[in-house]
């Protein structure tokens, strides 16, 4: 990695993505965050004092042109790219028997296509720096849940992480899958609010992401599954 590393985080304007961006900035990283909401990104930057080390770019994580543009802008602004975090994603909070297929389409594109597009766009730059890829999965991607389409998308991310690792490990690029359990973010807003059980904070998950990103050369952390305690799953 470069002396002042550069990271790009999708879905970085709130929740786990924003907590990760804050933590990396505090460590001296230069950080690009993307998201669909331009106002949210602007508010996040203003909250931090609009530092020159932070670049915000509005765009759709499931649109290749938007993702490629964000990667290109990061390299042009900061000179390189050392890490990407595929964090953008959401749940439809329904199941295969009575859910809304229109919501499933957007969810599958964001949760599954989005990380693949980020890898595709960022890999040339990451090979140059022998950088790292972090994919945000879920506990729902390592356990089975009846009829859960969101869980199926995260099982896809589980497979993508290992398939990508096998592809790029020879190039010195690290790949980490981070599987959070229930975390206090806006993720649960679409489902009527957070569950009434133990929860983690975005900072808990961000700490794990940052730990994986800051391992020394030659160390590749492959999978981290993080649950609140106690956890029913």
Question: What would you say this structure looks like, in words?
Answer:
The chain is α/β, with parallel strands linked by helices and 233 residues long. The chain has one domain: Rossmann fold (3-Layer(aba) Sandwich), CATH 3.40.50.720. It contains six helices and seven strands. A seven-stranded parallel sheet has the order 3-2-1-4-5-6-7, with helices on both faces. Strand 1, helix 1 and strand 2 form a beta-alpha-beta unit. The chain is globular. The termini are far apart. The relative contact order is 0.15.
Descriptive labels:
globular; Rossmann fold; 7 strands; 233 residues; alpha/beta; single chain
Strand content: 15-25%
CATH fold-type name: Rossmann fold
- Helix/strand order: EHEHEHEHEHEHE
Gyration radius, rounded:
17 Å
Q: What is the count of β-strands?
A: 7
Query: Structural class, please?
Result: alpha/beta
Shape assignment: globular
- As a percent range, the share of helical residues equals 40-55%
Number of helices: 6
* Multimer state: single chain
Widest sheet: strand ordering? 3-2-1-4-5-6-7
Cα-to-Cα separation, first versus last residue = 37 Å
> How many structurally independent domains?
1
CATH superfamily: NAD(P)-binding Rossmann-like Domain
Just name the CATH architecture.
3-Layer(aba) Sandwich
The major pleated sheet works out as: 7 strands, parallel
Poorly predicted sequence stretches spanning 5 or more consecutive residues? none
Average pLDDT level: 94
